[in-house]
Records
---
Amino acid sequence: MNVERGIFEGGETPEQAALADARARASLKDGEGIPHEEVVKWLKTWGTSQAGPPPKEWFE
């Protein structure tokens, strides 16, 4: 039986996943990333007349 992988199942080993998590945590500690409150504010516009793409500065 062929079972399709979920979108979050990348086939990585537990060690690779732990390393990726550690890198992500380190980048957040260094001030990288987008504050949760900003993302929530943007998401709350979805389905309204103010909805739009994410702010360009998030990709700089």
---
Amino acid sequence: MTGHKLGWMVVAAALLAGCGDKTQQHGDSPVVLIGQASPLTGPQAHLGKDNENGVRLALDEINAAGLTLGGRKVTLELKSEDDGADPKTATTVAQKLVDEGVVGVIGHLNSGATIPASKIYSDNNVPQISPSATAVAYTAAGYKTAFRVMTNDAQQGSVLGNYAVTKLGAKKVAIIDDRTAYGQGLADEVEKAVKAAGGEVVAREYTSDRSTDFMAILTSIKGKRPDLVFFGGMDPQGAPMVKQMRQLGMKATFLGGDGVQTPKFIELAGADAEGVVASNPGLPLDAMPGGAAFKAKFEAKYGQIQNYAPYAYDAMHVLVAAMKRADSSDPAKYLAELPKTDYEGVTGRIRFDAKGDLAGGAVTLYQVKGGKWQPLETVKSGT
């Protein structure tokens, strides 16, 4: 620790004696540091910036309204880090955020980054709310600091697999995943649900989250004549995959999860996006309680919403609402308030179950029609 860093910590501690808050000091106003981590460079940067901007919009609004904790007006400051959607980088980023003194983290975006980072936050008692990590393993670890505001993959995969067989009429299904915690985890759940609904899984293949050439995999799958191909992964792989399917003359329906259900997918896949079906946890933006208002203010400031921005926005508000109830930004004090959350957000009512998962979530199916994602059906899970 440098002498400079030690200096501001001593000053902050002296000014907030008895509060226990980990704050910096800018003039007379204590500054509370909030962390955000997502891929801000690379092929998933459009999604990472979407998360960052959702957090920033909420943080700016909270600061504009004024936030008082422990009898003092405080200012929130965002520390945003690029984890590159990489598990190893994510742990480095998490430790950096902890060392910088953040009192809470919104992130990470990808399950593969969120899961290893969650141990570091847990070890340092820093609350973490992911707006987009859906892998079951994230909250299954049992860390008391881990929460998410989005439906998990056990729910999403079950809906996808069942929908493929019962609504899309797929008797023979091929499954490909990108071998990330998200992609493989979702694919596993889809496979179970397809079989439970009476469908046959005729192929199970895998690639990576950096690949763009899927011809060998698809050629192998084509010979098994699937009615439907499910891909567990993100849009930078999903778009070239469906284009290559069509180049091979494969007529099978292409089905994806939330990593595919983005405007960027349509942009990358072009005309081959037409007819693609994908799911996304939660309600369609226009059906969210605060969706229309959020869309107007977000897009006026940052442009088109890619996917998870409303959840990142809600996660930031949930974190601060817990601080308000505890009247402190000290994680040792406000962490106990997070499990009590009952917050009416843009995305809907947010409550957590005993694991930190969203209670009573929903999953919506979409299809690309006329170059746009159009909602097909919303399935709500039990409360």
